[in-house]
Amino acid sequence: MEDKRNIQIIEWEHLDKKKFYVFGVAMTMMIRVSVYPFTLIRTRLQVQKGKSLYHGTFDAFIKILRADGVTGLYRGFLVNTFTLISGQCYVTTYELTRKFVADYSQSNTVKSLVAGGSASLVAQSITVPIDVVSQHLMMQRKGEKMGRFQVRGNPKGQGVVAFGQTKDIIRQILRADGLRGFYRGYVASLLTYIPNSAVWWPFYHFYAEQLSSLCPKECPHIVFQAISGPLAAATASILTNPMDVIRTRVQVEGKNSIILTFRQLMAEEGPWGLMKGLSARIISATPSTIVIVVGYESLKKLSLRPELVDSRHW
C-alpha cells in the first residue's frame, strides 16, 4: 500500500495546460494585489539613506497611508501587473526544465535547483524593464523625491493619472539612458533572483519532506506544503537580501556598477545596510508564499489530466 507520507509531485506531463494557465493567471493576480504594498515599502526602505524617511516596515506603512492614502501603497501597480506574463513564463520554464533534467537525474533537489535557476533567467529577462518603470513610480511621493526621476508638472506626486505618470517616467528614462536604461540592473537582478529561485525550490521540498516524516500519516500534504513555503522563502530572502538591496539601488538611483554600489552602501551604512527591507520582504513573502504554494499545488491538482485524478492520493 502506498505510504501517504511520500509527497507526490505533479509533473508537467500530468497537467491539462489550458486549465493550468487560466487558473494560474487568476491566482497570480490575487497574490499581487494582496502583497504589493509590502513590495513598495521594501523598495523605499532599500533606497532611502539610513533611516531618513522611515524607521522600519510598520512606520513606512503608516506614513505612506497617512500621506497618500491606500492608493499610495499601490503606486506602479498597474505597470507591475505586466509581470503576469513573466510569471507564466517562469512556471512554464520551471516545469519544462524539471522534465528535461529528469532524463539525467532523478534527484528532486537537482531538478528543483536547475529548474528554479533557469526559470528565473527567463523571467528576469522579461521582468527587468517592467521593474525599472514600476520602481520609479513607487518612488513618487509628496515632498522630497526618492529616485532619479520625478513626474513632471506634478512635484507633489499626485493628481496625474497612472498611465500619464508611466509615460512621463518612460520618456525620462529614454532621455537619460536610452533603451539600455530599461535593463539597468539586469545583471544585479540575475544575481538576486537566480540564486533566490534556485535556493527556494530545494529548501521547499526539503522542509516538506522533513515535516512529512515528523507528522502523522493522516495529516494532509497541503499542510506540510503551506508551512514549507514560508520557511523556504525566509531562508532564500535572508541569503539573497544583500544582493536585492544593491539591485534596487542600481535600478532606482541609476548606478552603473554593482561593486561601487556595494562599497558605497558599506561606507554609508555598514553591514546592516545589506539587510535593509528584509522584514518587509519576509512579511510580503510569507502570506504570498502560503497562497502561492497552496494555490500552485491546488492549481496543479485542478489541472491534472482527468484520467490521472483517481490515481493520486492527497
UniProtKB/TrEMBL annotation:
**Gene this protein is translated from:** SLC25A44
Taxonomic lineage of this organism?
A: Eukaryota, Metazoa, Chordata, Craniata, Vertebrata
Record has Mitochondrion as a keyword: yes
Recite the UniProt keywords alphabetically. Amino-acid transport, Membrane, Mitochondrion, Repeat, Transmembrane, Transmembrane helix, Transport
Signal peptide range equals: none
Q: Which GO terms describe its cellular component?
A: mitochondrial membrane
Annotated SUPFAM superfamilies: Mitochondrial carrier
Name listed for the protein in its UniProt record: Solute carrier family 25 member 44
* Gene Ontology terms for molecular function: branched-chain amino acid transmembrane transporter activity
Write out the similarity annotation.
Belongs to the mitochondrial carrier (TC 2.A.29) family.
Q: Where in the cell is it found?
A: Mitochondrion membrane
Q: What broad class describes the main subcellular location of this protein?
A: mitochondrion
Q: How does it sit in the membrane?
A: Multi-pass membrane protein
Task: Spell out the Gene3D superfamilies in the cross-references.
Answer: Mitochondrial carrier domain (1.50.40.10)
Instruction: Enumerate the PROSITE patterns for this protein.
Output: SOLCAR
Q: What role is this protein assigned?
A: Mitochondrial solute transporter which transports branched-chain amino acid (BCAA; valine, leucine and isoleucine) into mitochondria in brown adipose tissue (BAT). BAT is involved in BCAA catabolism and actively utilizes BCAA in the mitochondria for thermogenesis.
Spans through the membrane:
20-41
Reaction catalysed? L-leucine(in) = L-leucine(out); L-valine(in) = L-valine(out)
Query: Which InterPro entries does this one have?
Result: MCP, MCP_dom_sf, MCP_transmembrane, SLC25A44
Each Solcar repeat occupies one of these ranges, namely 18-100, 107-210, 220-302
Natural source organism = Tursiops truncatus
> Which Gene Ontology terms describe the biological processes this protein takes part in?
amino acid transport; branched-chain amino acid catabolic process; regulation of cold-induced thermogenesis
**Source superkingdom:** Eukaryota
